Amino acid sequence: MTTISDLSEELVEEILCRVPATSLKALRSTCKKWNALSKNQIFGKTEKQFLGFMMMDYRVCSVKFNLPNEDYGADPSIKQVALLDQVKISKLFHCDGLLLCVVKDNTGLVVWNPYLGQTKWIQPRTSFLSSDRYALGYDKNRNHKILRISCFGYEIYDLSSDLWKFYCVTPDWEIPSHQRGVSLKGDSYFLGHEKITVSGGEGVRRKIEDSLLCFDFTSERFGPPLPLPLSFHSYRSETMTLSCVGEEQLAVFSYHLNLSSVYEIWVTNKLEPNAVSWSKFLRSFRGSHVHIEAGSFFIDEGKKVAVVFGLDYKYDETRYQTAHIIGQGGYFKSVNIGEAPNLAKLDKPYMFGYTPRKYCYPVVCSSYVPSLVQLQINQPGKGKERDYY
């Protein structure tokens, strides 16, 4: 009797290429030969929808999002990742098919390859802080590294050597703690505030300019601040955030809250270490009753649509995790993807009968592509001694 293991390699490859990428993990476990093949070559048919990962309620979830042509309709499918269901995650980042997860109590980091099902645990010699900013990238030799930015400078962790490097610097810019870094072609980008010295009739003063900051993992240095679109200024924006468009472009989303809600998304035409240019992707006006908190997003250039994930609320102050679909001509549609639970510790006494509220903003990682990057599996433990620069 013919068994799965008796099939020819050519036939096995043909079968694997016809299987949806989301089903490959279960399929690999049925046969050692199939599992070995999938570790050396990317299989899985292309799916006609957004496929990626997001964080909801401190849990990592897979997400599929259909955007039909006829009505910008949405059919999201969100499932919690079983591999990480014992860990609460407060921050999530993506680069080159790997996901960087920050443990909620700041005790460590987890790097996860969803395609291969591998995880690598990383802990610092000194405690992580809730105000730390992170990014994941790689250098010119494809060595993957983690960037951690703190109030004392920044650190680099090399995944292959398990070595931390610490750089004690005082930059002329700052990155707000709520800003998430995104990675493109190995480099990481942040929205930051450049501090500029201005001389004039009022004497010498410091001026704050919103900028795009790039970290090069090869030189392990930040490049010069790059300009954002002229209409972007955080002092009159409720939300600004970055996302990737495929593997070549960045997109920046801004939500202005004034007399009416204005949503703008711009994408890069050119992106170099010392230069950037932008073009407007869409601009939409909405009534002030529509409020978006957090604002992680992805765009579909073909359909001219953006999907922005955030928290919305009604008059009873109940929060809802919502996907807002924004399109051309003022198109706007909200899809409720679940009520956001109040995550505050309600057993703690508060004055005057105040009931605390605390929510986890949904965060989506866009442009996920399966990767064959092998992680050196380890057990949770301390990192090696750090070098200082």
UniProtKB/TrEMBL annotation:
Gene3D superfamilies on file: 1.20.1280.50
Occurrences of domain F-box (ranges): 7-47
Pfam family of the protein (one): F-box
InterPro entries: F-box-assoc_dom_typ1, F-box-assoc_interact_dom, F-box-like_dom_sf, F-box_dom, SCF_F-box_component
PANTHER family per record: BNACNNG10540D PROTEIN, F-BOX DOMAIN-CONTAINING PROTEIN
This protein's name: F-box domain-containing protein
Source species taxonomy: Eukaryota, Viridiplantae, Streptophyta, Embryophyta, Tracheophyta
